[in-house]
Amino acid sequence: MGYILPHESNAHSPLSSSDPAAPGETALVLVSHGNRGIVLSPSRGEIEVHYRRSVGRPVCGDAVTVNHDAGEMAAVESIHPRRNSFARADARFRQQVVAANLDYVLVVIAAEPAPSRDLLERYLVAAHSLDIQPVIVLNKAELLADAAPADDGPLARLEEYAELGYTVVRTSCKANPGVAPLADLIAGHTSILVGQSGVGKSSLVNRLIPDVDIQTGTLSHSTGKGKHTTTSTMMYALPGEVRDPGFLVDSPGVWEYGLWEMEAGDLQHGFVEFQPFLGQCRFNNCLHASEPGCAVKQAVDQGQIRAWRYASYLRLLEQS
Fold first, then answer.
1. Contact at 8 Å (CB) between 298 and 100?
2. Which of 32, 222, 244, 257 is the most buried (most CB within 10 A)?
3. Residue 278 belongs to a domain with what CATH number?
4. In 153-265, where do the E strands start and end?
5. Average pLDDT per block of 10 residues along the chain, 320 residues long
6. How many CB atoms sit inside 10 A of residue 227's CB?
7. In this predicted structure, what is the pLDDT of residue 61?
8. What are the φ and ψ backbone dihedral angles of 247, each rounded to 5 degrees?
9. CA–CA separation, 33 vs 224, rounded Å?
10. CA angle 307-119-123, nearest 5°?
11. d(C-alpha 237, C-alpha 78), whole Å
């Protein structure tokens, strides 16, 4: 399949961590399903492994210690400490980790289907709270000129997101600018693609990874769902001649991204423009909602924080 392991001295590589207490070889988890998965082994390539009950279940991007002499199938002996992890909420609003050791969260939106009002905000808040850099990817960019985006939706505010410091990348799988701007950004890094169904994530994966069908065939073996599956989170190697071309994690599409039960402080820090005003309120436990003497609300009134962003914060605060 042509996978190239990330160089272990690369600070961005999940394999830069180590677990000297556990004997075996460090490998990278590419797909995980139940009590087994596929890992990328430096000495043996892609191999199927099982997880010891005492170890737990690793996720895509985890560095693990693998024992090749554990029986008919290699065994994962330990999961190395994670630099970070990306999560979503389960049905009970608990944090559910889906990938680890990431550099970018690529939030894909499009003119068709138009994103819901707060979907992008949920992704941005989650990325910030998990210490991962978010990137806004406008796919199907050729459709934006003919679209009539809602005044209170993210498509009408891409320039304002850029002014807030977010990287906004425009892509198209059918016309200019193509996918080169995104490919250049993520080269040599580990990223995860997220976004609602229908925004063209699968098309982006096909353009960014020419041999995706070959890689999917191997990775799907552990899921038991055949050659092609869109229900498992999988990590693919990006093309490149360099030692560490990078990896891309593809996650199943969702119509709504749910936040887990989040502390108010994490939610506040998910809005980057709030940062200069946090800690300046009259009350230390200020939620920036209805409390008197709130520095954040004062900043909104003075135009230092955009009113629509503050309104998004209040909606997420109510939901959390």
1. no
2. 32
3. 1.10.40.50
4. 167-170, 190-194, 234-237, 247-250
5. 44 51 81 91 91 92 91 91 89 84 95 86 90 96 80 87 96 93 95 91 93 82 52 85 80 65 83 95 94 97 96 90
6. 12
7. 96
8. -135, 150
9. 9
10. 95
11. 23
Per-residue confidence (pLDDT) for residue 248, from 0 to 100: 96
pLDDT of residue 15: 56
Classify strands 63-67 and 74-79 as parallel, antiparallel or unpaired: antiparallel
User: Structural domain of residue 122, as residue ranges?
Assistant: 85-250
Please identify, among 29, 50, 79, the residue that sits at the C-terminal boundary of a domain. 79
Within a domain: 255: no
How far apart, in whole angstroms, are the C-alpha atoms of residue 158 and residue 178? 19
For residue 290, report the phi and psi dihedrals to the nearest 5 degrees: -125, 10
Q: Classify residue 163: in a domain, yes or no.
A: yes
92 and 75, same domain (yes or no): no
Identify the pLDDT of residue 319: 82
Give the pLDDT of residue 196: 86
Report the pLDDT value the prediction gives residue 104, as an integer from 0 to 100. 97
C-alpha pair distances (Å), 65 with each of 20, 26, 52, 53, 203:
9, 5, 11, 14, 34
Token pair of 195 as six digits: 């976004």
Residue 130 corresponds to which amino acid? Answer: L
Q: Among all chains, which residue has been given the structure tokens 């190697």?
A: 237
